[in-house]
Structures are given as C-alpha cells and as structure tokens.
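This part of the workshop introduces the protein records we will be handling. A record pairs a protein's sequence with a compact description of its fold. Comparing a sequence with its tokens is the quickest way to learn the format. The record below serves as our worked example for the rest of this section:
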Amino acid sequence: MTVPLMLLQIGLPAALLVWLAAFPASGAAAFMVQACATAAVLVALGLVAPWVMPPWWVPWLFGLAFAAIVGWLRASGRLQGRDRRPQGWPATVALILLAALGVFSTWLSTQALAGRRLPEAGTVNIKSPFSEGSFIVAHGGSTATVNAHLRTFDPTVERYRRWRGQSLAVDLIRITPMGFRTDGWRPADPARYAGFGTPIMAPCDGRVVVASDGLPDMQVPATDLDHLAGNFILIDCGGFVVALAHLRQGSVLPEEGDRVQTGDPIGELGNSGNSSEPHLHIHAQRGIPPDAPFGGEPLGLTIDGRFPVRNDRLRAAGQ
C-alpha cells in the first residue's frame, strides 16, 4: 500500500472523528449533517478501499469510535440547548464541503454494493485453490469500484483486447490470523509475505492447456511489465477455462496436456509478473485465442458457491 492510500484510509477518518468529537456543529440540523456525512465517509472507505494494510478490522474500529463519540456527546448533554445561530462562514463552508463529501461517499458505497451482484456475463463455480490459510480479496466484484480488472472489459482500447478474459478476475492475498499480510512495512523480499509459497490446488477437474514457468519472483514493489501474468496455468474445466497467475518460479507442477483432478497440487503462490506483492490472480473465461491466452470472453467466478468481492475474507477448506 502506498503512503497516500494509507493517509486516506487512516488520516481522513481519524480527522473527521476528531472534528466530530472536539467541534460538533451548532444546531441539530448542522450536527446531523456533520454526523451523517462522517458516517457516509466511514462506510464508503470500509467498502471501497482495499483493507490489506491497514488490516480488515480497522474500519470496524472507526465504526465503534463513531458510535462512542455520538453516544458520549448525547450523554454529556453537549448537544442540548446549543446556540443555533450561524457559526460563521469558515465553519459553514467546511460543513458544506463535508456534506458534498458525504454525498460522494454515498454514491461510492452504492457502486461498491452493486459490485456484489453476479455479472451479466454469466458465472461458473470452482473449488477453493487453497488447502490452507485465510485470504482477503484485494480485487473482486462486478463493478470497477471494487475490481480494477474491469478496465480491460472496454473494447475500445486495443491493448485491452489481449487481456479481456481477466476482466472479472479475483486477486487473493493471504493474511495471518490477526489480519496482517506481512511482518513489516512492505518489505522487498516476497518471502516475508504470508502468502508466498502457499500451495495452490487445481480448482476443477480438467486438462492443462497452458503451463508457463521460469520467470523470477519480483522484489516488492517492482513488477515485470513484459510478462504481465508471470508464471501461470490455464486449465480447461469443460465449457470454461480457469487461469491462475503470478505463481512462484519453479513451482508449476503439471505440463501442458496433463489431466488434473480437483485438489491436485499444481503450484505455489508467488510474485512473478505484474504483481505489486505476492498474491494469486484467478479468473474464468470462455475460449483461448491462439495469440492471447487471456483474451477469451470473461466469466464471473464463484468459489465454493461464494462470489468474492473486495475485502471479503475466505478460508481454505478445513480451516
């Protein structure tokens, strides 16, 4: 995670909560605007921002802090019998800007929630590709607000056509029981991330149609823009193809033409290709154009019957 994103996810809600606690707006209507807009920002950040670092439970702490502040203000009587006259133009302008931010945040939340609808392109179901660990969805869902892969769905951009099949992809990052994905602040060594080297299993019965290995695992945050998928496997599951990408160098087990059964080990989670940090990219598509393995028609993907959306947490079978 970048510093600006961290400031947005931590600094903005913290500043709004301090403002609410220390300088509650005068008058019932003004305070309602301040409180509702603050709540809208907290909800939008909780739904839209990727809670990988900071971990997933931080938005819940902000929610508890908001409830505690409002409860304290009510119990202390600070909201009773207050001056209803205008606060002056600086406070009025700040309140108007906050209200606008609240409206925008509400719109973002609706877009994030819309991303929980199954895509119109159709959906296929697979088994979990993991036999161990807990994972958080960094990108996933049916709207661009929660799934950055959807930008390649735009047919007007020529360079996206080779990657159209991954438009509804899911990115999965392994996290510890406490919700952290590494033991430091974005260390360069991919081996220091919880997911690096996690075994990956075949999510369906099928035939391996492409198996690519040999690319190095990148140091974080460097990426390989010449080989975007890194080491990857394509499995023909009968009627659709599943792609698993950014695998660890030297870990790909099956060869092209091999048959695999659900649960067979096929590789390890790595950091090869255009990967900002160790994670598994997985998507489903129909067809494999000969000159563009990821250029098929995109399909929605459910894992064990669940449609993964950003910030959802998934556990491997048996965990």
About this structure: The chain has a mean pLDDT of 93. The first strand starts at residue 123 and ends at 126.
